[in-house]
Amino acid sequence: MAKLKTGRHTSALKEARKSKKRQQKNISIKSKIKTLTKKVIAACESKNFGTAKSALNEVFSVIDKAAKKKIIHKNTAARRKAKISKKVSVATKSL
After folding, report:
1. For the domain that residue 45 is a member of, what is the CATH number?
2. Spatial contact of 11 and 59, defined as CB atoms under 8 Å apart
3. Which residue range forms the structural domain that includes residue 74?
4. 48-54 average pLDDT score
5. In this structure, are residues 35 and 59 in contact, taking their beta carbons and an 8 Å threshold?
6. 38 or 94: which carries more pLDDT confidence?
7. Are 88 and 45 within 8 A, CB to CB?
8. Is residue 38 part of a domain?
9. Looking at the 3D structure of the chain, how many domains does it have?
């Protein structure tokens, strides 16, 4: 790409494009975490514990991958996992 005459650097423009792509990917992963968390909570509330356990494993996997890629902080990941697993364990004990 040739130098622009407006004074902007091509590297800065490319970095802005890359940043936008990364931002969209991160937002989609965070949204997936929230959606799966709601799915687990809904399964617990409807006393469907088989679905809750399988969904819990799926949420843990997504959260761990997001923490590994530094989309969310590792302590945030641990806190969310603890909160979700506590809700599932309390729901299963209340039978």
Report:
1. 1.20.58.110
2. no
3. 28-93
4. 91
5. no
6. 38
7. no
8. yes
9. 1
The structure tokens listed for 24 are: 């969209």
In a domain, 14, yes or no: no
Rounded Cα distance between 68 and 44, Å, is 27
- Token pair 């709601």 is found at 38
CB 54 within 8 A of CB 37: no
Amino acid at 25: K
Residue 70 contacts residue 37 (beta carbons within 8 Å): no
**Is there a contact between 67 and 77 (Cβ–Cβ < 8 Å)?**
yes
Contacts of 58 (CB under 8 A, 6+ apart): 36
Contact of 52 with 91, CB cutoff 8 Å:
yes
- Alpha-carbon distance 48 to 11, whole Å? 52
Average of per-residue pLDDT values in the chain = 91
Question: Residue 23 is encoded by which pair of tokens?
Answer: 């931002």
Q: What is the pLDDT of residues 22-38, one digit of tens each?
A: 999 999 999 999 999 99
Q: CB–CB of 87/59 below 8 Å?
A: no
